[in-house]
Amino acid sequence: MASMAAMVTMGVAALFLSAAASSAMAAGLQMDFYSSTCPRVEEIVKDEMVEILRAAPTLAGPLLRLHFHDCFVRGCDGSVLLDSTPANTAEKDATPNLTLRGFGSVQRVKDRLEQACPGTVSCADILALMARDAVVLARGPSWPVALGRRDGRVSIANETNQLPPPTANFTRLVQMFAAKGLGVKDLVVLSGGHTLGTAHCNLFSDRLYNFTGANNLADVDPALDATYLARLRSRCQSLADNTTLNEMDPGSFLSFDASYYRLVAKRRGLFHSDAALLSDPATRAYVQRQATGLFADEFFRDFADSMVKMSTVDVLTGAQGEIRKKCYLVN
Ligand code: HEM
Fold first, then answer.
1. Within a 10 A sphere around the Cβ of 193, how many other Cβ atoms?
2. Is 69 an annotated catalytic residue?
3. Residue pair 223/264 in contact by the 8 Å Cβ criterion
4. How far is residue 283's CA from residue 80's CA, in Å, rounded to a whole number?
5. What is an annotated GO biological process for this record, any one (predicted)?
């Protein structure tokens, strides 16, 4: 007979699945979208992801971030993957996206799926699956990915102004998330994605050297812990440094856990946008609760929930868009 704990777990899983399924259905996506046209799609993506991360473990963060940057500009339609053409500068070549990585891995998975099921699986779906598997393989939570996204044919550099910049304050972050149908809870939960990966010095060095424009050693962000500031200055020695990489969650930047919140609570979040989560009572309460380290299960469930929401933002379905043959080119 199933134990009470197992029954409760099963009940929670069923509830979650139905919430995810209903949000996906509302967006026109389906859990079993490729069941007759490419039944092994999830297995193929997963197998490739195991190989990709075995060869390059640091790609887990970038592959999660690619999906976020895809969904925030024209919806999750693979527009972030398109190359510029002589007539058009694509999202990929806009400033916020110059630090993206992992495009080659996406194409590798696409090629593998074109062999198995030609012309069937969209690049937008591939990104959604790769982001999920990246988190799972980094020992984070899993979530069901409903499928059936179509690939867009348009990618415009200027539209990346819909991506929140690292300098954003709380009000701006809330507005930018709301514009994508995401709430304050999604903001604080998805910011937890910064448990993975690295950041270039120049994306936060204004906090170390030039916070108000005075550009001197006293011109620092008062919201940044002084000891941490000194450590960051020793790594990022000038405002101009745009090459040095910093682990966003030092010591565990390859594993998905709740330690991001411990850092933010200690005023050691790397970006102004991370620190901004302490400036609002509701997000501060979430950060402080997670900083105790006692509620990681809750963070994992929340992250899974918010990813399901984010991965359905403004998707193209049905006869909209196309199924690209190459992720970097319209057909
Ligand atoms: C809340 C607003 C956000 C801002 C302002 C922001 C900003 C940034 C910036 C500036 C970087 C550094 C890029 C680099 O220097 O290479 C970064 C990295 C990253 N972001 Fe965010 N981000 C936000 C939300 C998110 C969300 C929602 C996710 C995913 C759920 C995410 C996942 C990541 C990951 C995984 C990295 C590391 C990438 C790597 O290792 O190359 N971020 N973010």
1. 23
2. yes
3. no
4. 29
5. response to stress
Question: Residue with structure tokens 């007759």?
Answer: 36
- For the chain, residues with pLDDT lower than 50 are 1-10
CA-CA distance, 137 to 49, in Å (whole number)?
Answer: 8
Supply the DSSP symbol for 83. Answer: P
Going from N- to C-terminal start, the domains of the chain cover: 26-163, 170-308
Please list the alpha-helical segments (H only) found in the chain. 4-26, 41-55, 60-71, 103-116, 123-137, 170-178, 184-190, 206-209, 226-235, 259-265, 272-275, 281-291, 296-310
User: Which positions make up the binding site for Ca(2+)?
Assistant: 70, 73, 75, 77, 79, 91, 195, 249, 257
Q: Which atom of ligand 1 is nearest to the CA of 61?
A: 35
Percent share of the chain, pLDDT over 90: 92
Could you tell me if the CB of 273 is within 6 A of ligand 1? yes
H-run or E-run covering 85: none
- Rounded-to-integer distance, Cα 228 and Cα 266, Å: 9
CATH assignment, 170-308: 1.10.420.10
CATH number for the domain formed by residue range(s) 26-163: 1.10.520.10
Ligand 1 center–CA 191 separation, angstroms = 8
Element (H, E) at 121: none
- What pLDDT does 20 receive? 60
Distance in Å, CA 173 to ligand 1 centroid: 13
